[in-house]
Amino acid sequence: MVNRKELDPESSPRAAFGAHLRRWRERRGWTQEDLAGHTTYSSQHISAVETARKPPTLPFSRELDRIFGTAGTADSFERLWSEMRYGSLLEGFPEYVGYEGRAVEIRSFHIGIIPGLLQTPDYAQALADADVRRGSITQHQADERVAFLIERQAALVRDRPPMLLVVMDESCIRWSVGGAAVMGAQLERLAEFAELPNSMLQMAPYEIGERRSFDLPVNLLTLPDRSMVAYTETPTQGYVDRERTAVVSLLTSYHQLQAECLSQADSVAVIEQARKGMS
């Protein structure tokens, strides 16, 4: 074949997707023009994806699954796209985000790190860059992680946004991320969040000690049909749970935690005091 570009599937996720696409196309004995005739995409687009010059999209991946009959199988193009898109995220988290985007109420508890929905881009980038320096992710994955967070935040800006109740351990504002300027802007963002009509922000001060209900992050979602979803994390795994007994137990613990926390006004006062200490 003239001008056939050899692909190294190990060189990048895009190259792996392109090689997978070429393999399935050639199994059918199709040219790129033949495949284009079965899709809404041009042969030039298919060529660019095959040679990793252009990233695949979710709609494109789903069209390929329909054409090749690979939906729901180990060879699924959508599955491969998902691995590319969310490869740097904790397992279980992409599933949770799908629910989060539809939630009418979000309750969360966080330790050490400001919750993602409230992070400024600079704060999020500082965290991602630190993972790059440790060698746990690549710079490309770090940039994708921050872009994904911005998309996640944007998904909650709706005509009728969800009620967002956030409890943060005091460590979230004491652990400086990105230096004084980045952290100061982040604390200012928290104070602004507390002023929104659909928000509640509470601090769990160090003084509550053993009365703190959780030792790991917890997220509780109420969906439009009033069903609930829980999401919890360990350092290596995220868990989505819709089983009613488990969710209700976590909700009870969350309410108990709120009762031990500072009021929103007192929480904002602590945040403002910490922000002034950054200047």
Topology:
Blueprint: H1 13-27, H2 32-36, H3 43-50, H4 58-68, H5 77-86, H6 93-100, E1 105-110, H7 121-134, H8 139-154, E2 163-169, H9 171-174, H10 180-194, E3 199-204, E4 218-222, E5 228-233, E6 238-241, H11 244-260, H12 264-276
Parallel strand pairs: 1-2, 2-3
Antiparallel strand pairs: 1-4, 4-5, 5-6
Helix pairs in contact: 1-5, 4-5, 7-8, 10-12
Describe this structure in words.
By secondary structure, this protein is of the alpha/beta class. It has 2 domains: 13-86, 434 Repressor (Amino-terminal Domain) (Orthogonal Bundle), CATH 1.10.260; 93-276, Endonuclease, Chain A (2-Layer Sandwich). The chain is built from 12 helices and 6 strands. The chain has a 6-stranded mixed β-sheet with strand order 3-2-1-4-5-6, sandwiched between helices. Strand 4 and strand 5 (228-233) form a beta hairpin. Helix 4 packs antiparallel against helix 5 (77-86). The longest helix is centred in the last third of the chain and has 17 residues, at 244-260. It is elongated. The mean pLDDT is 90.
